[in-house]
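Hi V.,

Quick status before I head out on leave. The structure for the redesign project is tokenized and pasted below; the design run finished overnight.
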């Protein structure tokens, strides 16, 4: 979290809601990136197994192709000059396409045949069977080389993407989420402290109002008593017999 984010996160309910939303988004992003990393790793291991299999097959195919070339040269002599003179364009071409794996674009290559086979009747001449076999073996070798190149390119691309994705997953898991959780904990602590301070303040205000009310009641009672005294009225009960004097004698 940058310094600007620290300044903008003021301990309040709105800040708490904002940080909880960020935490939820970070957790969801971490889950999605983790699933993406798992999918890429699964495809990565599958490609690695195919690369090992293709390299093993490549050794056998190249060995057979070299041996068939030696057989064709022994049976038909040096036929390389005739092949070079008759070739005007490539018969086998490489086509590029793309594959999408968890949002990652992987380049794929495949061999396609362009036009007819110029040497489809090669087997009718001297040593033609060996030459045709040599052509088929080298065709398989070219196809396998293109497949291996496609796998190697996808392997390198996936390796780079997996490293970047794992770094992002680790950053979210070990840096971003703990930082947001610490910020939420700080805001919660500040809000609790503020609530305790508010409760203490209200309690002190109530005590002060109570004392003020007691003082005001006492002052009002003293004022009333002073008013009664100033008007010459006694607070004790009066004796009416003393005020009217002795009663007259009654004659019968």
């Amino acid at each position: 979290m940058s310094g600007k984010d620290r300044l903008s996160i003021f301990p309040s309910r709105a800040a708490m809601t904002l940080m909880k939303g960020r935490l939820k988004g970070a957790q969801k992003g971490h889950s999605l990136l983790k699933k993406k990393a798992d999918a890429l790793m699964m495809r990565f291991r599958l490609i690695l197994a195919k690369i090992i299999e293709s390299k093993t097959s490549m050794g056998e195919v190249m060995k057979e192709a070299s041996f068939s070339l030696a057989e064709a040269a022994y049976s038909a002599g040096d036929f390389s000059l005739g092949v070079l003179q008759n070739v005007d364009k490539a018969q086998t071409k490489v086509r590029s396409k793309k594959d999408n794996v968890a949002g990652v674009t992987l380049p794929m290559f495949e061999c396609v045949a362009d036009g007819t086979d110029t040497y489809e009747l090669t087997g009718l001449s001297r040593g033609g069977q060996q030459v045709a076999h040599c052509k088929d073996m080298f065709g398989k070798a070219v196809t396998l080389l293109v497949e291996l190149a496609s796998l190697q390119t996808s392997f390198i691309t996936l390796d780079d993407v997996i490293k970047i994705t794992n770094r992002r997953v680790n950053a979210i898991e070990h840096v971003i989420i703990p930082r947001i959780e610490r910020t939420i904990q700080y805001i919660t602590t500040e809000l609790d402290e503020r609530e305790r301070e508010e409760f203490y303040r209200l309690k002190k205000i109530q005590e002060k109002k109570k004392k003020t009310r007691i003082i005001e009641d006492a002052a009002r009672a003293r004022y009333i008593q002073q008013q009664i005294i100033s008007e010459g009225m006694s607070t004790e009960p009066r004796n009416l017999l003393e005020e009217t004097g002795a009663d007259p004698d009654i004659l019968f």
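Above is the designed sequence. Residues 35 and 102 are 9 Å apart (CA to CA).

G. will cover questions while I'm gone.

Best,
W.
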